[in-house]
Amino acid sequence: MIKEVTIPEIGEKVESGKVVSILVKKGDLVNIDDGIIEFETEKAVVEIPSPVKGRVNEILVSIGDEMRIGSVIAKIDTEATAAQPEPRPAEPAVPSSRKPEPETVTRGKGISEPPIDPGVTEAKAAPLVDRAEKQRLDEPMPPPAPVEPQPRRIPAPASPSVRRLARELGADINVIQGSGPGGRITETDVKEFVKGARRQPRAAEHGTQSKEAAPARAVGQGKTTALPDFSRWGEIEHAPISTVRRITAESTAQSWNIVPHVTQFDRSDITHLQGFMERHAKTVERSGGKLTITIILLKVIAEALKRFPRFNASIDLDRDEIIFKKYVHIGLAVDTERGLLVPVVRDVDQKSLMGLSVEVLDLAERARNKRVTPDELEGGTFTVSNQGGIGGTDFTPIVLWPQAAILGVSRASVEPKYISGEFKPRTILPLSLSYDHRIIDGADAARFLRWVCDSLENPFAMYME
Amino acid sequence: MHDSNRKTQLVVIGGGPAGYGAAFMAADLGLDLVLIDPEENPGGVCLYRGCIPSKALLHVARVINETQESSEWGVTFAKPKVNLDKLRAWKNGVVDRLTSGVGQLVKQRKFRHLRATAAFQDNHTLNIRELGGAEYTLSFETAIIATGSYPTKLGKLQPDSPLILDSTSALELEDVPQTLLVIGGGYIGLELGSVYAALGSKVTVVEMTAGLLPGVDRDLLNVLQKRLESKFEAIMLNTTVTEMKAQANGIKVTLDNKSGEKTSRIFAKVLVSVGRRPSSSGIGLENTKVELDQRGFIKVDSQRRTAEPNIFAVGDVAGEPMLAHKGTHEGRVAVEAIAGRPVAYDPAAIPAVVFTDPEIAWAGLTEAEAKDKGIDTEATRFPWAASGRAITLGRTDGLTKLVIQRETERILGVGIVGPGAGEMIAEGVLAIEMGANVTDVGLAIHPHPTLTETVMESADLFRGTATHYYRPKRKK
Q1: Do B343 and A144 touch (CB under 8 A)?
Q2: Residues of B in contact with A170 (CB under 8 A)
Q3: Of these four, A231, B111, B379, B399, which has the most CB atoms within 10 Å of its CB?
Q4: CB contact, 8 Å: A140 with chain B?
Q5: How far apart, in whole angstroms, are the C-alpha atoms of residue A80 and residue A162?
Q6: Is A143 within 8 Å of chain B by CB?
Q7: A167 and B344 in contact by Cβ < 8 A?
Q8: Is B448 a catalytic residue?
Q9: Phi, psi dihedral angles at B201 (to 5 degrees)
Q10: What are B388-403's pLDDT values in tens digits?
Q11: Residue A86: partners with Cβ closer than 8 Å, 6 or more residues away
């Protein structure tokens, strides 16, 4: 049976994206969950997995195609096994290979009606062929003509000149949000879409700093300052930036411009903690997790956020209010091949160390393998960035606005410490807390970080008060 | 011809509106090109045997009808005397003037027009046969096929007789037959039927389906049909022709009205207008990778590129709707694509006009299509009885209709029936292409007193605020 692989629902508000790479080729055998393509949305790059096992019969996309959710990307023959010979490519179409009706093939731009059921839809059965048709089919046929994109239900609300401009700039008019009445797309909409400016409407949506943020963002994106011609001083190369890079650039610039940053440093003696971690490492490993200092920190910070609620809040100056979040979702900065991703661990306060060990390992792995969904990158209330695996002493992380603070973790080292009249080797963990001074004052930050350090040194102290 | 000339960057095969539109665009963009068409001047079916001569004759038909209608206004004319030779000569003069004008434009653009026919030898070579008999090959980098279409015949049913006409021979206007049977109630049959009826023939139309002009919204059609019923002898729907025999006194036709009743009648002449077929055979496409669909149209992508990457197809041969203006647009898009521009054929609206009296014109979504596709629309109708201009013309039977998307208030379709509908529809096309909404059209001042005001007032009707038609919006 031929199964169509479609682009499934990826996350809230994600309607379309771009094919960045194709991981299989025609004739490949795939298993359930093997990646078919890498799909770049506005929020993340995700791998679209195969929902079935079988042989790739047809790939209907090429790199760079703009696709919508529900679009068919490939067809997989679920009856094919390794024993079957490779289907010969470029063979004149014969009835058997005509089974999937060309009309059902949707590709590229302009698909307006995704199948209601995302994921897998069964390809149409072979049409009944009457005799005349059969005779016609028996004649050798030239290879299939270019696949026409399926007509939209209604045309995009843009004038012919705007549609032409979009095409010239390589933008799909069907995914551009129009700013005019009835969603009419203007020349400016197209240009802004191409510049990427349209893709981060959050500052405005959030209601915070909307007026101030606009020019700030422009500065952050480096749009207001023209770059010099670097080639005057030597050879240069232009490389396009990836979505992850662009998002990182935009969001750090935005934070930097909005948030008055201060960084507080402190150090914690985790000598005892190391013993604890070593003792439980095996048990945790057996459950498929990994007990690391990050896991312990998550738990301690979850507790700290309850005691210092301003660190789990956002400020809204337009409304003169602070928004306290009653949930604790902590983001973890993950260094991936594509750049920095920050998947979010939900409800950390309600989870056990064991549960977190398993969850974080899985989340980080999926972030690295492009399997993390855009939804999992949203909704954080606080962030932890652990550079301990790499090294360094201290650093000043940037708050992930609209969060209020971020904890930087550097590499622990064994240092002599003067205790009870003598120097003893102790394992010391350097911590850096960057915070938004609009919400949090220096004394609060010193207390917060001291509390975290104390709790790491003596976990039961957490529960004394 | 000199050898060095037998090579070209671009060859355009067919000199109809799609072909010459492409050729002129190519010349304007500075491409090296050859246009192949057997006629002396480009023009194709449209100019020689279609749109243009039929419109010339329809104009005459309208004048004749108006002289009869004017008796209502106290002005009477004698019964018209038709000098058929002179009328034919005038019609031919119109054609000559236009085609030689196009020929002049070829000369001004200084590209080669070969009076020849062509067939593909392979994907880079054409076999050329000039009218004078010279045969040679022409090698090309890119080709645009614009070979058009031809009238469909009824096959075995249709005996070989000069009394059986197609659109081409009907336009020759050899005589005005006493009786004429028009087979096929599409726009060609109705237009030519109208011409012959005005000239004095008793015209009967048979249509196989349940209605004339399939695809046109019924409310628009009804206005036309009412008038045609008074001009034609009979309009027989759900009726098929089962037999045609050539006799000395005409064609004996057996009609079957689908409930099994067969009647035989003799008509002096019969016009077969059951559609057109793409001219995709006999041009050597089998020597290329160009692919045809089941109906014989050449399959093309959004740039009008065939399965053979350096061969394009435009106009009737590249698919429905088979309309000159659609072909010209396609031809220009194909040339821009060849010139390397990132263009695509993506019209939001292709206008269609039936040049009967009254005319029917529509563009974009029809009301029926909107319903079929499940698009949430509302149609507003402005009856011409409320139009000052229509009343001064003595033509209050017209109707202007807008198909409006409820959510965005965008105009997605326009349908008009009435004299001059064909001219008026251009505004509808512009509105749809520009993504205009009812407020835009309602706020654009339309000249008074003209029929175009009905478009503005149809837009205002959406909110129940048309000045000259009281139809308040129902409260929700």
Answers
A1: no
A2: 342
A3: B399
A4: no
A5: 46
A6: yes
A7: yes
A8: yes
A9: -75, 150
A10: 999 999 999 999 999 9
A11: A27
Q: How far from A210 is each of A55, A178, A203, CA to CA, in Å? A: 51, 20, 6
B contacts of A184 (beta carbons < 8 Å): 435, 437
The minimal CB distance from A154 to the residues B301, B375, B437 is found for B375
> What is the pLDDT at residue B282?
94
Across the interface, which of B302, B373, B437 has its CB nearest the CB of A148? B302
Whether residue A192 is predicted with pLDDT greater than 50 in this model: the reply is yes
Q: Of these residues, A206, A261, A280, A437, which one is catalytic?
A: A437
Residue A157 is nearest to which of B294, B341, B410, comparing CB atoms? B410
Distance from CA of B21 to the nearest CA of A (A): 19
Å between B302 CA and nearest CA of chain A: 7
Least confidently predicted of A217-221, A343-347, A397-401: A217-221
Burial of A128 (0-12, 13-18, 19+ CB in 10 A): exposed
Tokens representing residue B16 in the block: 């109809």
The interface pTM score, or ipTM, of the predicted complex is 0.80
What average pLDDT does range A223-239 have in this prediction? 77
> How far apart (Å, rounded) are the C-alpha atoms in residues B70 and B62?
12
B430 burial level (CB within 10 Å; 0-12, 13-18, 19+): middle
Contact residues on chain B for A143, CB-CB shorter than 8 A: 289, 291, 307
Q: Which of B290, B300, B434 sits opposite A159 (nearest CB)?
A: B434
- Catalytic one among B124, B325, B448, B468? B448
Residue-wise pLDDT for A33-61, tens only, equals 778 888 877 666 777 888 888 888 888 88
CA B377 to chain centre: 27
- B306 contacts in A (CB within 8 Å)? 145
Q: Is the pLDDT of residue A112 over 60?
A: no
- Measured between beta carbons, the chain A residues lying within 8 angstroms of B440 are 181
State pLDDT tens for residues A305-350.
999 999 999 999 888 899 999 999 999 999 988 889 999 999 999 9
**Which tokens belong to B445?**
């001042």
Q: Which residues of chain B have pLDDT under 70?
A: 1-5, 474-476
Give the span between the Cα atoms of A101 and A430, in whole angstroms: 63
Q: Would you call A326 an interface residue with chain B, using a CB distance cutoff of 8 Å? A: no
Distances (CA, A) of A231 to A226, A227, A365, A404: 14, 11, 40, 41
Statement: residue A135 has pLDDT above 50? no
Reading phi first (left if > 0) and then psi (alpha if -120 to 50, else beta), residue B418 is in left
Chain A neighbours among B 408-447 (CB < 8 Å)? 408-410, 412, 432-435, 437, 439-440
Q: In this predicted model, what pLDDT tens digit does every residue of B57-100 receive, in sequence order?
A: 999 999 999 999 999 999 999 999 999 999 999 999 999 999 99
β-bridge partners, A313: A324
Q: Which residue of A has its CA nearest to B306?
A: A145
